[in-house]
Design brief:
Blueprint: H1 2-7, H2 9-37, H3 41-45, H4 50-62, H5 66-91, H6 99-130, H7 135-148, H8 150-160, H9 164-195, H10 202-212, H11 216-224, H12 228-243, H13 245-262, H14 275-288, H15 294-317, H16 321-327, H17 330-354
Helix pairs in contact: 2-4, 2-5, 2-15, 4-15, 5-14, 5-15, 6-7, 6-10, 6-12, 6-17, 7-8, 7-9, 7-17, 8-9, 8-13, 9-11, 9-17, 10-11, 10-12, 10-17, 11-12, 13-14
Length: about 350
């Protein structure tokens, strides 16, 4: 009796994984296509990453052929969108080390923290008060603009509890305005160089770019448009900003739970503990010890790109264009406001911190 009882979970587990296979194969195929396209020189030069392409391809399939496949593939697509995403965020920690903080110094960390906090606060306040948006959309757009683009949006989704279409709208704003920033920043640097409006060395431009541009790929492109040195500094500043993802998610979860407690008649608040964020910090810590072989790190980063691309593909597959249309112009206006703040307010923060005594 006990033997047969112990054997019962095994067929159930096997059946569960068999049900996931079609969806996993579909998201893997979309991810592979996106990663292949991302190697094209023109796309690389314009900072279009595999993650961006994966969600675009996913949306295209999600609004054409996927509805006919959804019955068979939904289980695996959902698994990609949830669990592969969390695994991808954990492995994202291999892209940086705690030594990166030392390279930008206390001033660089302070700049990143101030830009992150002010941008997210502005998104929350302006999104809900000025534009009358739902809180989840405003917070997701704020996370993407304040930290590290699409990866931050996806990481914040379990904490914010946003719907697929809200996540897609937020990711779309990152793509649109991050791409605009990628071209705008080098142009503004050259104009400033010609007119001397503010003192701005290549290193200072790198910190400014890394602390304010949305995606890592966009930061690299905007930095290289000025010089390789500017790009190197920009990437370090950006990686320190990415490192703030874990404490940000924990603080956001506590803040949202507290807000639910304060609502009259609200049910008992629950704190969404972002365990994957702790995993992200732990992996970054292990990477900082330099005990892992470089070949293993490179392979794990490649795997991470695959996992995140599959998660993006799954998000696109489950997003309907009608939902994006229903979102209207308000998310774009909010994202435009945040871009303006990242440029103007971010520059002011950079200049102010640079001139602090000591």
């Amino acid at each position: 009796m006990s033997t047969s009882t112990a054997a019962l979970p095994l067929p159930s587990l096997a059946q569960r994984w068999r049900g996931r296979v079609p969806g996993l194969l579909l998201t893997a195929g979309v991810a592979a296509a996106a990663m292949g396209l991302a190697t094209l020189p023109w796309l690389q030069a314009h900072g279009i990453s595999a993650l961006t392409l994966a969600i675009v391809l996913g949306i295209a399939l999600g609004n054409s052929v996927y509805p006919r496949l959804a019955a068979q593939a939904a289980c695996g697509v959902g698994f990609s969108k949830q669990w592969l995403l969390r695994a991808g965020i954990v492995l994202y920690g291999l892209r940086l080390t705690f030594q990166d903080i030392g390279q930008v110094g206390v001033a660089g960390v302070l700049v990143d923290a101030l830009v992150l906090g002010s941008t997210f606060a502005l998104a929350w306040w302006a999104g809900t008060r000025w534009f009358g948006m739902d809180r989840e959309s405003a917070l997701l757009i704020g996370a993407g603009s304040a930290i590290c683009g699409a990866a931050a949006v996806m990481a914040a989704e379990p904490v914010v509890r946003g719907r697929a279409e809200q996540v897609t709208v937020a990711v779309s704003t990152v793509v649109v305005f991050g791409t605009l920033a990628m071209f705008l920043y080098p142009l503004l640097y050259q104009l400033n160089l010609a007119h001397g409006w503010v003192p701005m060395s290549e290193a200072a431009y790198g910190v400014f770019t890394g602390s304010t541009v949305h995606e890592v790929a966009q930061v690299v492109a905007a930095g290289r448009a000025v010089s390789q040195g500017a790009a190197d500094t920009a990437v370090i500043a950006k990686m320190v900003r990415v490192m703030m993802l874990a404490p940000f998610l924990l603080a956001l979860s506590l803040l949202l739970a507290r807000g639910r407690v304060m609502q009259p008649g609200a049910a008992r608040a629950t704190i969404v503990v972002p365990w994957f964020a702790f995993g992200f910090a732990a992996v970054a810590g292990i990477n900082s010890l330099h005990v892992l072989p470089s070949a293993m790190i490179a392979a794990a980063i490649d795997l991470d790109t695959v996992l995140l691309a599959m998660a993006m593909a799954a998000l696109g597959l489950t997003t309907h264009v009608s939902a994006l249309r229903q979102a209207g112009i308000k998310p774009l206006l909010l994202a435009l406001l945040l871009l303006g703040w990242l440029i103007g307010g971010g520059l002011a923060i950079n200049l102010a911190v640079r001139h602090l005594p000591g």
